User: Fold this.
Amino acid sequence: MSIAHAIRAIEAFQGASLTSSLSEIEHSIVGLNVDELQTFCGGRGIDHGLMASAVSIKQLAGQINVIIHAAGILCSLPHVLAKGEVVESVSLGAGNTGRRFDLETNHRVAEYKFIDWQGGPESIRQNGIFKDFFELAEYKTEKQKYLYVVGTDYPLRFLKGGRALSSVLSRRPEIQKRIAERYGEGVSKVRDYYELTKDQVQISDVSPYIGRDV
Assistant:
């Protein structure tokens, strides 16, 4: 089934408002017998095809973050690369697929985070961005290091904040151990580590290159 066909089937079912459509259906089928229900559903296109359409859209939605990641990197490349800079490796799929970073060129290494920050606690997202920042900061290279984000306000607020590293790295104790061994036990908060390493990584807003306003 094509995605276009699936979308049309879903649009026909939900109408202008899914809530209103469901309410209307609920009232309409009260008192109907088996034959009448079959006629009603057939006339509305409520059948195996509708179910298949919904499943297709759900499967696509499960891959949407991968699509955003890949498209975001590709859209940004013509804008972030300098003249004479060439791509040496790129990771467009989920994770780094065996590569150290999302992007490596002859001049830079970079990670991308296409996060739509809402301003709440967002601890899982914060954990992810700290890991990427750490891996860039600690990587030994003469190349420039970039962490590309959608808007710098929330990421910088987090990195300059007082969240405990023991919380951020609760599932990555090996990183906390490395930080303690290199910088001492006194480095216990995110801002402590950021202050020591902020000159290692440039945090750059990628939103102008992907059609996003932040």
